[in-house]
Amino acid sequence: MAVETTEIPPLWLTLPGGFTALDLAEDLDDRTARTAAALDAAFPRTRPEQRLSAVIAAETALQAQLRAGAVHLSGCLVRAEDGEPVHGMLAVFVRPQELGPRGSYPDRAAAELAEAWPDTDVGVVDLPAGRAALAARELTVPVPGVVWGVARSTVSTVRQLELLVPHPWSPHVVAAVFTTEDVAYWSEWLPLLAAAFRGISFHPPRDASLDDLPPERWDNVRKAFG
Question: Which has more pLDDT, 226 or 173?
C-alpha cells in the first residue's frame, strides 16, 4: 500500500500487508463503525471484548496522534503465530529540525535519545531512505475509566519503536512511531516494522513490492533489537 503525504517536503510510505491507512478527515462514528466491521470480517472468531478493545485503542491513539500533529496514521491488525489477533498503530510526523553537518544527525540523535531515556534500546540503522536513529522503549500510559464506561482509571503498558530519519534536502526529520499494547508479541512485530520502515521514501514508489524482498534485505530492525 503506497501512501503519499500532502506535507512539504514530500514523503511516501509503502506499507506491507496488515497496515490500513486512516482517513484523518473521516467522521468519528463512521470511522469506529468501519473499524468494528473490518475487525469482524477479518477475525470472525474474535471475542466481542477483543474487538471492542481494538476499536477503543485505535481511536484513543488516533486522537492523541492528531493532537500531536501526525501527517499519517495507520492501524495494523495481524494474527500472531499462536492465532491471537494483535494490534498496533503507526504514526508519522514531519518535524522542522536543524540537522547539522551532513550525515551527522542519526548518530547525534541516537546519543541524545540514549541520554534522555537511559532504559531505552537505541541504535542506528541503514534504510533505503538513509541512515536513521532508532529507539525502542516501554511506557506506562493512563487509560481513563470513561474509555471503558467505568469510574476508575487504569494504566496500560505499551511498547514503542521510534524511527528518526533526516530529510535529504530539507531541514526536517521524519519521525515514524509504532505503538502496541501487545508487548508479549514484540519479536513477531519486528519483521513487519522493518518492512514498514524500509517503505519510507522521499521519492515516488516503484512498482516492486516490499513483500517480494527476501528477509535479509529488510530485517535491519530485527538485527538491531531482535
Answer: 173
In the prediction, which pLDDT does 152 show? 63
What amino acid occupies position 165?
V
Phi-psi region of 105 (alpha: psi -120 to 50; beta: other; left: phi over 0): alpha
AA letter at 108? R
Phi first, then psi: what are they for 160, rounded to 5°? -130, 135
Long-range CB contacts (within 8 A, 24+) of 118-126: 121/225, 123/224, 123/225, 125/163, 125/197, 125/220, 125/221, 125/224, 126/220
In angstroms, how far is the first alpha carbon of the chain from the final one? Answer: 26
Confidence of residue 123 (pLDDT cuts 50, 70, 90): very high
pTM > 0.70 = yes
Of 156, 94, 122, 125, the C-alpha closest to 218 is 125
Cell numbers describing residue 188 = 513477531
Q: Is 122 helix (H, G, I), strand (E, B) or coil?
A: strand
Strand arrangement, sheet containing 172-180: 19-21, 72-79, 85-96, 172-180, 154-166, 130-143, 121-127
C-alpha span between 177 and 163 (Å, rounded): 6
Beta strand pairing call for 2-4 and 72-79: unpaired
For the record, the C-alpha cell of 195 comes out as: 518492512
DSSP annotation of 144 reads -
Q: What DSSP character marks residue 58?
A: H
- Give the residue with greater pLDDT, 222 vs 177: 177
Element (H, E) at 86: strand 85-96
